[in-house]
Amino acid sequence: MKKRNISKNVKDNIITYGIVIVAYIVIQILISAGSLSSLMQGLLVPLCVYVILAVSLNLTVGILGELSLGHAGFMCVGAFTGAFFSRCMENVITIDLIRFILALIIGAVCAGVIGFLIGMPVLRLRGDYLAIVTLAFGEIIKNIVNVLYIGKDSRGFHFSMKDSISLGLETDGDVIINGAQGITGTPKDSNFTIGVILILITLFIVLNLIHSRDGRAIMSIRDNLIAAESIGINITKYKLMAFSISAALAGVAGVLYSHNLNSLMATPKNFGYNMSIMILVFVVLGGIGNIRGSIIAAVVLTLLPELLRGLSNYRMLIYAIVLIVMMLFNWSPKLIELRKRFSVKCLIGRSKEVQ
Amino acid sequence: MSFISYLINGISLGSVYAIIALGYTMVYGIAKMLNFAHGDVIMVGGFTIFFAVSMQGLPPALGILLAVILCTLLGITIEYIAYRPLRQAASSLAVLITAIGVSYLLQNLALLIFGANTKAFTSVVTIPAIKLADEQIIISGETIVTIISCIVIMIGLTLFVNKTKAGQAMLAVSEDKGAAQLMGINVNATISLTFAIGSALAAIAGMLLCSAYPSLTPYTGSMPGIKAFVAAVFGGIGSIPGALIGGIVLGIIEILSKAYISSQMADAIVFMVLIIVLLVKPTGILGKKIQEKV
Amino acid sequence: MKKFKKVMSLTLVAAMTMALLAGCGGSAETAAEGETSESEAVETSVAGEGFKIGAIGPSTGGAAVYGLAVKNGAELAIKEINAAGGINGYQIEYNFQDDECDNEKSVNAYNTLKDWGMQMLVGTTTSGCCIAVAAESANDNMFQITPSGSSVDCIKGNDNVYQVCFTDPNQGIATAQYIGENAVASKVAVIYDSSDVYSSGIYEKFAAEAANQSFEIVSAEAFTADNKTDFSVQLQKAKDAGAELVFLPIYYTEASLILTQANSMGYTPKFFGCDGLDGILNVENFDASLAEGVMLLTPFAADAQDDATKSFVSAYEAAYGETPNQFAADAYDAVYIIKAAVEKSGVTPADSVSDICDKMKAAMAEISVDGLTGEAMSWDEDGAVNKAPKAMQIINGNYSLIQ
């Protein structure tokens, strides 16, 4: 019985990896055939970013069972530390790939450490209270990044939280993080191949964690905290483990994000609670705890507003309506009941509609 | 002297948060859902009054009445279409996401209907400001009206919930939906009523928000909505007096940190205080502690 | 149930692949849709015989007011040019894409326009997005002129990018010099948006230049995008510091609130603004008497009495039902600048994007354009514009030139 279970898991995982790899190959073929539009090519790296974010948040929301609304904050930490490193080392490490890998590691570690530090006090809270506190932390991170000024000149690094004048840079100085103006001129090191490799690594980490002893402990906390505690599971340890891994992965996504754009700023749009909620939408729409679902939902919802561009002004309106309809379709108990009664044919027809 | 005027500014900002938080906490307490679209219902209320009073020249009282009716209908409709089908869903997160969808929908509808240009709202409050200490301290008419309406609404809601049959039904539904249904309470109707009241409050909050800060865009409601949500959590979400206290305290902290620490970091400081309060008292200032059973 | 899930996920994968394929094949389609929707507004020309000009800006989200102004301003200019026979006989096709004021979405919008076949870009509207898009357009060597992306980083290192508006440092320095040289005030307070590139950029240069001038900055307070309704603290501090003049390097949306709140607390300093303040009189239902006496350095005023401005304003009002602001005027000028450069360089729509850009770059160095936002505008090699700002004051609810 146990053996069958395991092999089922393995099979399941292989399907998930398979989807990613097949998608990658298909897209590479399309690119080399020249039939992929610039829009789609430009969207490839962001898609990877959102997929990683969705998978990593699913670890917190789906596996650990805690609602976090501050995921964009960790992404922000990763993005800024990674981009800061690359900007500083641009002339020191000239091999792009090595510099980028180091940036990824730094971004992941910083985000993970911040996640750990935040998780320690915060994970004592439950439910909506935890949600609001993570939201608050996300906003704090964004707010601090917005008043951060770091410059470099011949005398070393200068740091200020007021404005770039008070950095007191020499004339050869270079303001690297310029408050709200963020980091400009990050080398464009991200590409689709690295993005897909990072997705695979993320999947590897998350899927292995889920099916490991630790993962089962984490899920037992989700299912019943008191029961888990009573059988001797170290609640704090496992909660922190899941939370900081999730934060570190969000940091990786952040580094990928920041190395795809020339100018990085912490606006309410990209690192505020709006983004955190957007990632949560991916997770919930894809199915809480369902990793594959997260990937698909992230891709569909990122593509949707772009594919709706032809509708010009009505674009975001339609997007909102589609979001509501998709949620009702996926989650309403009555509709689920209804759906079960229909045959596969109907399903295909319907999912096309959704698309 | 400037400290006192900062304090008064804090109270007037806080009273706006409080009145929004009342609606939030009401809906949360009964329906147990974070209604992210609440801020946007406020915006709809603001636009209705703007349209009725400033554009059509109707008397303010009529405009407010119109806004209350419209928002109430809107609240009931939203609940019926977007939230009710998901009430029995496997995860309570599902309805949270639809609420976000509704929020986007309202914002973009307003954008298409009213355009993106900022509209200057004419205050519907006609009470003159109180000037003290040689005009050093000024309490605006809007602040007075907001605080008075906050208190009136708070008392009214408390009486309603505790003394009327419908209010008791709400309490029962918030405790246990299944048991309430067994006792013959119409759960759907009760929750609809909650949304109706919450949205009517949103219309009033919209009027006061726009009177105090007279600029109106399709996104007017979203940030105050989030802040008020924070205020509601601060005071203990679900608690009606908690919303008032939470709102006022939040407003004062925000203004004082702007004044004495850093105007750029005010939000970070507010959120920091919130986190500290929640760590010390995990259910907010007036929240009830719920013992969890296995 | 398991089977159902499997089926469901398979269908979703199928749907996904379809979406992808639809995305590749369909992007041309979407573009085509865009064209048809625009074609009502813009007279379509014979296929392949017109210039394709794209524009980018936020038409949804909190900054939509600026993006929509750019969209309409450019559209108006293109309609006029097409009605008058086009540029060198070539009609213009126009396509505007929304970027929600997000850097990433802006690059998406740029790529969408590229798929559509864009040859020249009017955009982007906001500085942050402009920097991100400029990096892409520099790669493609696409001619880009931004109506209102005023940060220096928009043009720095990208020789294909030009500005219609002043750069932020220019505005900050010019304002400080104006206040100092004309001895407008000796104690100055600043209220700026620290989360906005435009505003913090101007503030920094203003503060740096103020050190050389005869006035003193007594209070400099910021606000952020998340906290822009209550300005009582910032005003109180300015008042307590005894500032005679409050400098507002911000957009008119927030400025209208500041003026209202200053009035209700009985504080009546002089107010001084930048080009972002233009438009304050047109805030619907705004009590214009509050803005009485406000001074601003701006290249454009909708109430100016010259013929060009008058005809632009009346045409804009007729077409879109609102008074144009500076963003609309900048975008309108941007299109006419493109026209001038095309006429000078003699490029044709048949040329490749890169050829057009190279020829246009050469032409931009030579031309001088009289527009709504400046007379005899010319461009240096960086792409920054040379034009004189006008100091305006609001008197009796109208802008009037201070000399």
Give a quick set of tags describing it.
heterotrimer; B: 294 residues; mainly alpha; ABC transporter involved in vitamin B12 uptake, BtuC; two-stranded antiparallel ribbon; 11 helices; C: 403 residues; alpha/beta; Rossmann fold; 7-stranded mixed beta sheet; 18% strand; globular; disordered N terminus
Provide structural commentary.
The complex is a heterotrimer of chains A (355), B (294) and C (403). Chain A has 355 residues and is mainly α. Chain A is built from 15 helices and 5 strands. Chain A has helices at residues 2-32, 38-64, 71-89, 96-122, 127-146, 192-210, 213-223, 225-230, 235-258, 268-271, 273-286, 291-307, 315-331, 333-341, 344-354; strands at 149-153, 156-160, 174-178, 183-184, 263-264. A 3-stranded antiparallel sheet of chain A has the order 2-1-3, with helices on one face. A two-stranded antiparallel ribbon of chain A has the order 4-5. Chain B has a single domain, classed as ABC transporter involved in vitamin B12 uptake, BtuC (Orthogonal Bundle), CATH 1.10.3470. The termini of chain B are far apart. The relative contact order of chain B is 0.20. Chain C is of the alpha/beta class and 403 residues long. Chain C has helices spanning 2-39, 64-83, 103-116, 127-140, 168-181, 197-210, 232-240, 252-264, 307-320, 326-345, 353-366; strands spanning 51-57, 92-98, 120-122, 143-146, 161-163, 187-193, 216-223, 245-248, 270-273, 295-298, 369-371, 374-379, 385-386, 390-395, 398-401. The radius of gyration of chain C is 23 Å and the shape is globular. Chains in contact: A-B, A-C, B-C. The interface between A and C is large, with 64 and 67 residues.
